[in-house]
Amino acid sequence: MSLTRGIGPCYSDKAARSGIRVTEIMDKPYFDQRLRALAKKYKDEFGDLLQYDVEKEIEEFNDYRKTLKPFIVDSIEMVCKTQDAGHSILVEAANALCLDIGDSTGIAGVFSGLLGIRPESVTTRIGVVKAYTTVLSLTKKVKPSTNQAPFQRVGSGPFPSEDFEAIGEKLQSIGHEFGTTTGRRRRCGNLDLVLLRHTTSINRYTALNLTKVDVLDSFPTIKIAVAYHVTSEDGTVTVWRDRLPADLRQLDRERCKVEYVELDGWNSEITGCRSWEQLPQKAKEYVEFVEKEVGVPIEWVGVGPARDAMVTRS
């Protein structure tokens, strides 16, 4: 399940090697043949559910081809030449790591998605994480479920630290937590350090950017998830602290109990802060607690929505 914008089918075509590559757009006869073959394949599969005019699409691509041509390059050659010239390269892995079906939207995805990047040249790996945890909802309201399918994305699946009461509503409201593409409400909960440690073990962050700390300004106490206590069918309890279990069904709400640490809130606005010294002591303690628990320095603290609303510690 995806965003219902065509991302899922495109992803499937890429994995199945049945899609059209960008370079093939430039070869009109081949492109037209491939697109007609794909249209027939999906028409046979979906019948009248598929309302698609392939000839109209082919005609539109006659114009798109001219527009796209100046921007199409051999990416491997471009990346290699850029590195040979001594230039720095900034790569953004735009999706959260756990959204990917193979955890490759993180550091590993840099090498599989942008071929030519030399592993030894990656010197800095910055993890961007909110001061609380969110997941995009399937609908406007997502109720607790004990048998959510863990691999249906976007929106379903386990979320151990999700809060269905006042805290979750408050985080959603103050943080304006709506999906950028769909406008759907995001599921909100307390910061999940098990999840953060799990992604750290995969991406090996050298620094963290802790964003939206200002959303917590008015919380008198702040809960942080530090461990999962999972009860198996035979009654055995397994504690998960540093990574997620391979079988995510273990994290349903009947079997998984979350261990929290509660910290005092700072109860003051930090949006105007621009230095570490200006932050309230309790806000500093929150940042330092997360830093110590994850084992990665937090170099940046987000204190508001403005571009310059950032505290740089170093």
Brief digest:
This protein has 314 residues and is α/β, with parallel strands linked by helices. Helix content is 31%, strand content 17%.
The gross shape turns out to be globular
What's the assembly state of these chains?
Answer: single chain
Biggest sheet, spatial arrangement of strands: 1-5-9-10
Helix content: 25-40%
Largest sheet: 4 strands, mixed
Which H/E pattern describes the elements?
Answer: HHHHHHEEHEEHEEEEHEE
Q: Low-confidence parts lasting 5 or more residues at pLDDT below 50?
A: 140-154
Strand percentage: 15-25%
Total strands: the figure is 10
Based on secondary structure, the structural category is alpha/beta
Please give the radius of gyration in angstroms: 23 Å
Features of the shown structure:
314 residues; alpha/beta; 4-stranded mixed β-sheet
Q: How would you explain this protein's 3D organization?
A:
By secondary structure, this protein is of the alpha/beta class. Helices cover 31% and strands 17% of the residues. The chain contains nine helices and ten strands. The chain has helices at residues 7-15, 22-25, 28-46, 54-68, 75-84, 107-113, 166-174, 193-203, 281-294, and strands at 126-130, 133-136, 186-189, 191-192, 207-211, 221-231, 237-240, 256-264, 298-302, 310-312. The strands form three sheets. It has a four-stranded mixed sheet with strand order 1-5-9-10, covered by helices on one side. Strand 9 and strand 10 form a beta hairpin. The protein is globular. The protein starts with 6 loop residues before the first helix and ends with a strand. Mean pLDDT is 86; it is low at 140-154.
